[in-house]
Design brief:
One of its GO terms (molecular function) is phosphatidylglycerophosphatase activity. This protein is an alpha/beta fold. Helix content is 34%, strand content 11%.
């Protein structure tokens, strides 16, 4: 199945934490992503912007203006509420959506809960300004959860393919 839409986590995947600007080394890739998929087929899902803590969607609106794509409005923090993502991409099958993020227990679980293709970014944008709890949990995910998934449960990464 071919990927037709992409859902990105924002903080430490595309931007520095709580920033509204694409991390400079990613700017050309971001433009290419928009050119390939079209802005209407890209959405950001953040536990800060567009979520229950973003009163009146003010942060989401600022990010939409800055980055040129929609921020999904959702009532539950990841990893819950992925059905909202499916409702956003009306007519697409879950396997036609890629979810990209820096956290196993939020972003990857979020995408996997609906059967989307998930991509874990192991290198984050920056530790500066990162949420302390998120940073600590990310370390546990990378040092404990990922090795357990691969050695105990036999989960294997799918090699990159030009068929995406």
């Amino acid at each position: 199945m071919k990927i037709k839409a992409v859902c990105f986590d924002k903080d430490n995947t595309l931007t520095a934490p709580f920033a509204t600007r694409i991390h400079p080394p990613f700017e050309s890739a971001w433009k290419e992503c928009i050119a390939v998929f079209g802005g209407e087929n890209i959405v950001l899902v953040s536990n800060s912007a567009g979520g229950p803590d973003d009163r009146d969607g003010i942060e989401a609106a600022a990010i939409e203006t800055a980055l040129g794509v929609r921020v999904l409005r959702h009532g539950e923090k990841k990893p819950r509420g992925a059905e909202t993502l499916l409702a956003h991409f009306v007519g697409l099958k879950p396997a036609e959506i890629a979810v990209v993020g820096d956290r196993v227990l939020t972003d990857v679980v979020y995408g996997n809960s609906i059967g989307a293709f998930t991509i874990l970014t192991r290198d984050i944008v920056t530790r500066e300004g990162d949420n302390r709890v998120a940073s600590a949990v990310r370390r546990i995910e990378n040092w404990v959860v990922l090795p357990l998934l691969t050695t105990v449960f036999g989960v294997k990464a799918v090699p990159p393919s030009d068929k995406l």
